[in-house]
Write a structure and sequence with these properties.
Helices cover 30% and strands 23% of the residues. The chain is an alpha/beta fold and 480 residues long.
């Protein structure tokens, strides 16, 4: 009896190596049933000829702002996942600074329900921890949250951070769930002081926003949260790490056997802070893009096998042209919002690095598929090509040379990006989620809203979400 789908005539890439060029995969009922040479694949109801392209386990973006619920004028589940499909991304994880913020089980369930109704690719979501919801951590876990986030630095939504006592208590409660707590790791007092000082001094250029949030804001927060995690036994993650010296601290924490992970973004690896003088507030983001020295150190931490960076994501952050000040990209930076889109440029940027010899294909797939899945409890269902797991594939042309000439061709609801005008080598050509083609460059997006589904990390056979068997007692146990 034929299987549902066979993809043939490709080179298969995993972190362990390459198979091909005449290789393929077979899929039945949404699951992988064979990975082999073409002549060993079974008959199928549908055959996709990859035309010599590469096939990898589906790319995962574990840091996007899809803006739903409440801020759908910026983006929603459908438009964000449409962009993901067009960009070759098969799974996304949404951030909690929405309206309302995702700090209660019922709000998390609303975000999940909206995803089930509207998403084109698979998804999950984080919940936020504030001073006001320490009693909700267990309920959020039981509702199926993938992990938690604390905003230590002021950002979109102006969610105030918990104080250090509350943070320690929260970390203990998260440790009991077995799930991971991530941070927007910027020291709020430093950045607020510098922003107020710069504004009082009339320092209003785009570069001044970057300089108001120096690397010390990240390094302090990384050091503090690792110290707290060591005390409380919490698994922690550093979101959107921008500076190499911060990544070095994460590496040092790993050497102390802390369960600490970190991500960085293509824009931190591609640009330096000079982009603020070249493209203005278009490139305004938090944390900001750093200088060349910090970028070079960041690259070292990405490439070092024992380095401080584990995975790649985007911080995909859509805002309207008006919010981004697109009428004048060099206007007073304090009147402009931070963030830009990235779902359709992350794979081309990373493939360009591969073509430039900065990293291997295998290293890229490890950081953009396998490691995000492992860090957030989705592996091996996501991020692998193991038999019996979800048939999520990113198919790409490694040699395609192209330029993003017009950002309005992107699929997000809002499209501001500093990658407009940049040239790439490499592009996703097909995206397959659980055995269904959701994007084909010849047909554009072909997936249907509502096909995407929540990744149930509590139902995947791994130890993520299992409370630790034992945790060392600390002096804080008497208080908490």
């Amino acid at each position: 009896m034929p299987v549902d789908l066979v993809v043939r005539n490709c080179t298969i890439v995993t972190p362990d190596g390459q198979t091909g060029p005449n290789a393929g995969v077979a899929v039945d009922d949404g699951k992988i049933v064979a990975v082999s040479e073409d002549d060993q694949l079974p008959d199928a109801d549908e055959v996709i000829d990859a035309d010599g392209a590469y096939l990898a386990p589906g790319v995962i973006d574990c840091h996007i702002h899809n803006r739903s619920p409440g801020l759908e004028y910026k983006e929603d589940w459908e438009t964000a996942t449409r962009a993901a499909a067009a960009g070759g991304v098969t799974t996304v994880v949404g951030m909690p600074n929405t309206d309302p913020i995702i700090d209660r089980p019922e709000y998390l369930q609303t975000k999940f329900d909206l995803g089930e109704e509207n998403a084109l690719v698979d998804f999950q979501a984080y919940a936020v921890i504030t001073s006001d919801n320490l009693d909700q951590i267990k309920g959020l876990d039981e509702t199926g949250v993938i992990g938690y986030k604390v905003f230590l630095g002021t950002t979109i939504g102006a969610i105030p951070p918990p104080n250090d006592g509350e943070l320690l208590e929260a970390m203990g409660k998260v440790a009991e769930t077995g799930k991971r707590l991530g941070f927007h790791e910027e020291n709020d007092q430093i950045l607020t002081h510098l922003a107020e000082k710069f504004q009082a001094e009339g320092k209003n250029d785009p570069i001044h926003h970057s300089w108001s949030r120096p690397p010390i804001t990240e390094r302090e927060s990384i050091s503090r949260t690792m110290l707290f995690a060591e005390e409380m036994g919490t698994k922690i993650h550093m979101f959107h790490l921008s500076c190499g010296t911060g990544a070095q601290l994460v590496r040092d924490g790993k050497a102390r056997d802390l369960d600490v992970t970190a991500e960085t973004m293509p824009h931190y690896l591609w640009f330096t802070e000079d982009v603020m003088n070249e493209k203005g507030n278009v490139a305004r983001i938090q944390p900001p893009i750093r200088d060349e020295e910090e970028r070079d150190i960041l690259w070292d931490e990405v490439l070092d096998e024992d380095g401080g960076i584990d995975c790649i994501a985007t911080d995909h952050s859509p805002h309207t042209d008006e919010e981004k000040g697109m009428d004048d990209p060099f206007k007073n930076t304090w009147e402009v919002i931070s963030g830009f889109v990235g779902l359709e440029t992350e794979i081309p940027a990373m493939l360009t690095f591969v073509n430039d010899g900065k990293m291997s294909l295998e290293k890229w797939i490890e950081m953009h598929s396998t490691r995000p899945a492992q860090i957030w409890g989705m592996y091996p269902e996501k991020g692998s090509l193991q038999i019996g797991t979800d048939a999520d594939f990113t198919i790409f042309d490694l040699d395609r040379e192209w330029t993003l000439e017009d950002r309005h061709t992107l699929h997000s609801k809002n499209t501001v990006t500093p990658f407009e005008g940049e040239s790439f080598t490499g592009k996703a050509t097909k995206t397959i989620v659980r055995g269904e083609l959701v994007y084909d460059e010849d047909q554009d997006v072909v997936g249907e809203p509502g096909f995407g589904t929540r990744v149930d990390v509590d139902d995947i056979d791994n130890d993520y979400g299992e409370p630790p068997e034992e945790r060392k007692e600390t002096e804080l146990d008497k208080a908490y």
